[in-house]
Write a structure and sequence with these properties.
Elements (H helix, E strand, L loop, with lengths): L9 H23 L14
Length: 46
């Protein structure tokens, strides 16, 4: 199994926090733009 966790140091922890913030901001930006994902075929626009 490949370990995907950051190194166990302060720099690794800062990297992890920055990556989480990036992902949360990207999600919020997509939701604000009206973008969302679905697995319901009736919601998919063609």
């Amino acid at each position: 199994m490949i370990a995907l966790l950051p190194e166990l140091s302060r720099k690794g922890a800062e990297y992890y926090v920055a990556w989480n913030n990036y992902l949360l901001n990207a999600k919020d930006d997509m939701e604000a733009a009206g973008e969302h994902t679905t697995t319901d075929p009736d919601e998919i626009e063609t």
